[in-house]
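Standup notes, protein team

Yesterday: finished cleaning the Solicola gregarius set.
Today: Divalent metal cation transporter structure.
Blockers: none.

Input for Divalent metal cation transporter:
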Amino acid sequence: MSTNEKQDGSVVASATTRSAILGAVFLMATSAIGPGFITQTTEFTVRLGAAFAFAIVVSIVIDIAVQLNVWRVIGVAGKRAHEIANEVLPGLGYLLTALIVLGGLVFNIGNTAGTGLGADAMLGLEPKVGGAISAAIAIAIFLSKRAGVALDRIVVVLGVLMIALTAYVALTSSPPVGEAIRESVVPYDSGDDFLVITTIIGGTVGGYITYAGAHRLLDSGVSGVENVRNITRSSVTSILVTGVMRILLFLAILGVVAGGVDLAAGNPTASAFESATGEAGMRLFGIILWAASITSVIGASYTSVSFLTVGRTSPRLRNLLTVAFILVTCVIYLLIGTAPVKLLLFAGAFNGLILPVGFGALLWAAWRRRDLLRGYTYPIWLLVVGLLAWLVSAYLAYEAMKELQNL
């Protein structure tokens, strides 16, 4: 992969590298923007109103702290997260892999169900038919001769489409933007802001999502100390893309709620879109839900399989394993119709356990294992920021353990 070197030794990305970086950014972002993301954002907007803006801003800051460290350690080391974890503590990488794959498998059932519901709202297809067709589309991407290029392009196109359509609905719903901005700085104390913040952090950088973009960069050949600048920028950009989508969806729902509309309990997001844009709202919701779901199917499958392989695994074998992963989750969905609520809660709690395990191993490598980072001197300020974010992830794990006990 060609790059241009400046006189100061830094690397300027070539067109091919820029395309790979953009694909990694949107793979991470669209992996986060799934059916659960849409449901959470709607629920918290209805519950908190404009005060939800504060939780969004705080979560974005913490998410950036996590991704800055995760992408940099993986990118500089040139190894996947589970490989680094095994170097830090033998066997830890296998534990991390088990957690990632189990959580990814269960959530992918929910993602596949989301594609079915999206296809139903968009085209009137029976959900199982829509889910099967969507799975076939995802499989076709990984079976194509240029699977990597196809993956990068489709997540970028669908990511931009989701953002554009949600922006349209947000403008149409006429949200109280001034109030939202004020609440993001000086929030009204809702009493459960911290719980909301930790919930949406877990949904944005929990589980497999944490590693989706960084692993995609490795597979694209973007790694090493010489690419630190590209890695840093892409890690921040991925969270900003996710944040933009969350803010736009929040504003779209807020405009409807602030207007006094009571949303349908069964499908509040679709109800809000219909109230804002009329009969076309249901179709718009279907397109957004389908795009969010199929990109999450792609992201969950790709990232889960990346934990079952190593750097020397051939792309063809990796793609075939990803196809098998999609097939398994699709068959389970077709057999049971959707992921049982308790199973999804279990997977969500499991995701809360994953973040401090993998993130902690990467921070330890940054602090004590300079040999894994090819002699790179890790910035102290970034390590401190990472430690603070890890403390938040530890709290998430504590809450996840309580949730597991209640299931």
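Follow-up from PR in the comments: The domain at 12-406 is CATH 1.20.1740.10 (Amino acid/polyamine transporter I).
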